Amino acid sequence: MVRVRCLCVGLLLGLWMAGCARFPPTSDQAGVRRLVIEMQVAGRIRPEYTYFVLFNLSNDPTGQQGPVPVVRPPWGNGFAAGAFTHFMRYDATLPQGGYGLYRVEPNTNLTGFTYIGAPRLTEPPVGANSNRLRFEIDLTQLIPDPDEARAMVYVQVNFLATDRIPVDPNDPTPKVWDALGDSRVEINRYLNIRIDQNRILRNAENGIEVGGDVADADLDIVDWRIEVRTL
C-alpha cells in the first residue's frame, strides 16, 4: 500500500512539473536586455520640436559607421544620415505620450520607416519647464528573435534635437539642431557601446556632448544616460 501511494505521488509530481514546463517564458525573459535611456536639454522639451535617439544595430566592434544629423540640403529624410537601423522619435503629435519606435526599411536610402510600437516604459515631460526625456526599450522590440537579440553586442547610438524636418531637397531655409559632439564644428560623433553586460554610461564620463553649442536652449542637448540591464 505504501509503495502504491509513493508511486501515485511520484506520477502526480511528474505531471505537475511537465505541465509547468509547457508555460512560455515571460515577456521579461524574452526581452533579453533592456536599455534605459535619458536625454536632457538646457531649456525645456518643446512640443513643436522633435527629439530622436538613433540606433545602428551593426554588431561592429569598431563602430566605423553610425547615425549622424542631416544639417544642410539635400535633406534626404530631413533628420539623420550615416548608418542607423532603428530610432525613437519624440514629438507631441505621436500617440503613447509622444514616444514612438521605428525600424528603417532596407534599400530605402534611409527614407522608409515602419512604426513598431511604443517603448516598454516612458516618462512624459512633466510640466511646462521639463527638460528631460526618459524611456525604456527591450532589445526584442528592435530584434524580435530572442537568439538574434542575444547575439547583438555592439550598437552605435546618437541623440538628436531639431526644430524642423525638411524633406524638399531645394529647401534653402536653415534648420536648428544639436547632436552628440560640438555642433559648431562637427557632425560625425556618436557612441559605440557594448550591450552584452550590465552597465551605465553617462556623458559625465567622457564629455562627448557639450552645452552651449546651439543658441536655442530647448534644442541644446547637455546630458545623456544609457543603462543596460540583463533580463
The succession of helices and strands, N to C, reads: HHEEEEEEEEEHHEEEEHE
Number of helices: 5
- What's the mean pLDDT score? 88
Coarse morphology: globular
Kindly name the structural category.
alpha+beta
The biggest sheet amounts to:
7 strands, antiparallel
Q: Work out the number of β strands.
A: 14
Helix content: 10-25%
Oligomeric description of these chains: single chain
Describe the protein.
- With 231 residues, this protein is an alpha+beta fold.
- It is 17% helix and 34% strand.
- β6 and β7 (113-117) form a beta hairpin.
- The protein is globular and about 45 Å long.
- The termini are far apart.
Topology, element by element:
Layout: H1 2-21, H2 27-31, E1 33-41, E2 50-56, E3 67-69, E4 80-82, E5 86-90, E6 99-104, E7 113-117, E8 121-123, E9 132-138, H3 139-142, H4 146-151, E10 154-162, E11 177-179, E12 191-194, E13 199-202, H5 203-206, E14 221-230
Antiparallel strand pairs: 1-9, 1-14, 2-5, 2-10, 3-4, 5-6, 6-7, 8-9, 10-11, 10-12, 13-14
